[in-house]
Write a structure and sequence with these properties.
With about 90 residues, the protein is mostly beta strands. It contains no helices and eight strands. The chain is globular and about 30 Å long.
Amino acid sequence: MAQLEVDLVDTDGTIWSGEARQVSAPASDGEIGILAGHTPVLSVLRHGEVRVIEAGGAVHRWSVEGGFLSVDGDQVTVVVDAAEAVAAGTSGR
């Protein structure tokens, strides 16, 4: 199965980097989901939750305060103004 190479960064540096099967983010006009093979896209992000699902099923979640998401090939770069990890079982809000 094809994988995404994901980098989540803020002004302090890298928050998370690795391979994933899916990325979801709060685009300015609604939730955007990215899978391997997605067409290139550049999207502004609003306040909300970024979710990264690894191939093994582990889910990583962060509450973010805006930024942007770029997809080129299977490389996903998420640049956020601020991010805070969300504990499992919470809504992130």
